[in-house]
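User: Please run a holo structure prediction.
Assistant: Happy to. Please share the sequence and the ligand.
User: Here you go; the ligand is guanosine-5'-diphosphate.
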Amino acid sequence: MSIAADTIAAIATPAGAGGIGVVRVSGPAVPAIARALLGRRPRPRHAHLTDFRASDGSLIDRGLLLYFPAPASYTGEPVLELQGHGSPVLLDLLVRRVCALGARLARPGEFTERAFLNGKLDLAQAEAVADLIAARSEAAARAALASLEGAFSRQVQALFERLVTLRVQLEAAIDFPEEEIDFLADPALIAGLEVLRGELAALQAAARCGVRLNDGLRAVIVGRPNAGKSSLLNALAGSERAIVTAVPGTTRDVLREAIELDGFALSLADTAGLRETDDPVEREGVRRARLELERADLALLVTEAEHAEGDLALLAEVPAAARLVVVNKIDLDGSPAQVQMRAGVPWLWLSARTGEGLDALRAQLLRLAGAGGEGAFSARRRHLLALDAVAAALSRAAEALGAARAGELAAEELRAAQRALGEITGAYTSDDLLGAIFASFCIGK
Ligand code: GDP
Ligand code: ZN
């Protein structure tokens, strides 16, 4: 536990007027500041109703003062919470008063950064604080809360400990090269590594799902002009944001629509389609569409019955992880709404105009967005990259151990894996990483 030299203060409630506003203060000067405001020693964790006064004695506001001594506080430092009326003007005066008493304005995320530095939460949990605040759907909020409670960190920590045990075992085996027995060929060692790789793969899958819950499913709608892409987007979003016209090629820019489907966040992009064109404006649209596609979780091809087979080529050039085909405008030819699997890709017949068959599409989207996943927690792309690095190192370790009996090499890979895993929880970090993570927080958190 380390206590910072300076004391920080910020308005912790959202900008603007509200019923109640909270000023939060953390650091070594807090006991003195609390005493100055209250006129006596505050009782720990007790709500004191008091007058907040400026240095000239004039009344700023009347509200509650709560004092949390270290280390049982959010930051691990002495913390003061001042609850007043939710007026930006009054709260500003209150912050200025606290600063006059020895605090300075906090940077974004600085309270949570101190909580991390004092071991109150690890880095993945600290990130979950920001994700919880930013959650755009009920599922995202629930997942972020699970991560904040340590659902993800505990699994990372368990893997970390197993990895250390395995590395110690391996290093012990290396230390006895003259022995009769080939310790490096110990089946327990090799089997242990395989089990670890299996568990890592499961955690990777769960974390991928966690990123999707956090960011929302990123879907891209592709298809020929006039297939009904904008109409479908509008039907799903239940709004009229995309411009629907009968003129081909009107959707020139990439249009993103964030919608919440049954509590799950879904981000849909309508693209200009991917056809070759000489029109520079339209070419720009195609370029942006391709960029969208590279980041998408799902590509959704919208087509019509008579064009379906020909349009399939569009889907082939999409790098997205999952694909769906929508055969739109069934109201025109009277075909029934249905779902068929073709070469592993679900095909859905529906009408964006009448809404027939739209529920089946919603169900498919929900499944892809992570609905029905048990024990879900939130994760970030940064975590996925770290887990990828762990997997790569473990795979190289297995190779070194299996074929070449290269113990030193394998041990080095296990150390690299341990490092990458430790980056998730913050056991290993750089100032740059911490700076980047906490700078994206809001002030007062
Ligand atoms: P986009 O170019 O792929 O975005 O296509 P739009 O959504 O702009 O639609 C092109 C035309 O097809 C418009 O006139 C729509 O009203 C029409 N359209 C879209 N979906 C349907 C549908 O399900 N049934 C019918 N009959 N017309 C549709
Ligand atoms: Zn369109």
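The chain has 15 helices and 13 strands.
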